[in-house]
Amino acid sequence: MPTLRIALAQDNPVVGDLDHNADLIRRAATAATAAGAHLLATGEQSLTGYPVEDLALRHSFVEASRDRLVRLAAELAEDGNGALPVAVGYLDADGPNPATIGPVGGRGVRNALALIQDGKVLFRYYKRHFPNYGVFDEERYFVPGHELHLARIGGVDVAFTICEDLWGGVPFAVAAEAEAGLVVNINASPYEQGKQERRLALVRDRAAEVGAPVAYLNIVGGQDDLVFDGGSVVVGADGAVLASARRFASELLIADVEAAAAADADIANHSTTAMSTSVHVLSAEPAAVETRIEPSHAPELGRLEEIWEALRLGLGDYVEKNGFQSVIFGLSGGIDSALTAVLARDAIGADRVHVVSMPSQYSSSHSLDDAADLARRCGLHYSVEAIQPIVDAYLAEVAISGLAVENLQARVRGSLLMALSNQHGHLVLAPGNKSEYAVGYSTIYGDAVGGFAPIKDVLKTLVYELATWRNEKARSLGETEPIPENTILKPPSAELRPDQKDSDSLPDYEVLDGILTGYVDGDAGREDLVEQGYPADVVERVAALVDRAEYKRRQSAPGTKITVKSFGRDRRLPITNRFRGK
């Protein structure tokens, strides 16, 4: 049985930066050649970045992708890597360059994979299945392909597929009919909790279906509210994990894979009711593997460490890829801003994190002390800007009271942060959590102000879990716990009126988050939640708060998605909406 040495480039592309992404592919090719690889695969749309969204509707961008692919093929040959077959994900389209492109009424845009060798594009495979749920809108942009391409490499017929093809399955069934010896599946699959386990189970199912190993490659990195977690894996026909890459980090995964030899020496073309197939024989046979490499197996991450790494990478890449040198936000002494502070330090380094304490007459001394203590523990830039004189100046001119005064304090703080952002170029972070965004327990243009919301998809109960875990991790490493114990233990409060506590306005967070998980993430109705044991009056109250806060969420900053349904492109409800249901 032949052995193929395959290299999977788990890289971090940047949407729209074709030259940078091409350089990542070239570096991976050089490393793969040095390792004696027979094949290099790169991620879904590795040349353009993913998702390109409405850039796919610009013919200039599609042409730039096509042109850059041809140049990349020549560059790989110039680098001395011409003999190495390289699978590249990119954006393509059918036919010449008309004025309109798209899935309807124009040239068909393709989510594509090209196999390159000797400075030439050998074939182009077009993705068959499109995700059109959750954060995905691929049916808006792409038309499907109907041909499966196999490359005969080292006597093995290797089939190539793209992301959702794994979930839809038709290309894998066709690969089985064509007796493929290996299937390569390139992905841009965003993270959410529990998804890696589902991916691995599906890869194993497909490997059993094809009767051949499957190489699953995923990109890594943050892109707006998405974060891609890598976790590339090679699975044998028996379901055994042959090699695996780290999560949330770039890596070139190299694995030796035993695969069945091609059935015959002839070039075979097949046609089925689902897809046609063609086999391409490469220009030169690679050298046989003489010394097997030790397989790489990445360590598994615990639940909270996995979530932390997703949040860290999502925030860090948003800052880096958008060209910000530093971040700023209000450090109140509460749990949300504390967690945001440690997350920002871990993501971009303490010297780039600026925090501001903005006390009013209702700010407690222990909160001010906790904020200063955390900034000292983490080595952050810390300043104090008292807001009471500004609030008093407003009140001297405008007659308001009650909730309006509470919101005024938050908006003064938001204005201060934006002024400091404008002055120094900081990115303002909004430290609100998912529970608060859900029920509207935040002030629009106040504490919700910012360009990115790092914990926007983190429920309040999970905020506490992560804070406790991060302190425990620091202790295990012999480091100072970053979050003061008092910040974790004290009752949460916005401190906008005397003796205020969150529990004055909201149910206990354990109850609230349980209802939100059902109502928001699971689309459960009110009666469903009552049947689960939640009090009917509490369910009605929480659901009404969620419904009324839609207009606020629509204006909120993006934040890293970690759950099955985040606030953003995952969940699209009308703002004007009188349906309440049961």
List keywords for this structure.
582 residues, 8-stranded mixed sheet, 20 strands, elongated, alpha/beta
List the helices and strands and how they pair.
Layout: E1 3-10, H1 18-34, E2 39-42, H2 59-78, E3 86-93, E4 109-117, E5 120-126, H3 138-141, E6 147-153, E7 156-162, H4 164-168, H5 170-177, E8 182-187, H6 195-210, E9 214-218, E10 220-223, E11 226-229, E12 233-235, E13 241-244, E14 251-258, E15 269-271, E16 276-281, H7 303-321, E17 327-330, H8 335-348, E18 353-357, H9 365-378, E19 381-384, H10 388-397, H11 403-424, E20 427-428, H12 434-439, H13 460-476, H14 485-489, H15 509-521, H16 526-531, H17 536-548, H18 550-554
Parallel strand pairs: 1-2, 2-3, 6-16, 7-8, 8-9, 17-18, 17-20, 18-19
Antiparallel strand pairs: 1-14, 3-4, 4-5, 6-7, 9-12, 10-11, 12-13, 15-16
Broad shape: elongated
Q: Largest beta sheet, briefly?
A: 8 strands, mixed
User: Mean pLDDT, nearest integer?
Assistant: 93
Q: Report how far apart the termini are.
A: 60 Å
Class by SSE composition: alpha/beta
What does the radius of gyration come to? 26 Å
Q: What are the segments in which pLDDT stays under 50 over at least 5 consecutive residues?
A: none
Give an account of the 3D structure:
With 582 residues, this protein is α/β, with parallel strands linked by helices. It is elongated. 37% of the residues lie in helices and 19% in strands. Helix 8 (335-348) crosses helix 13, helix 10 (388-397) packs across helix 11 (403-424) and helix 15 packs across helix 17. It has 18 helices and 20 strands. It starts with a strand and ends in a 28-residue tail after the last helix. The strands form four sheets. An eight-stranded mixed beta sheet has the order 13-12-9-8-7-6-16-15.
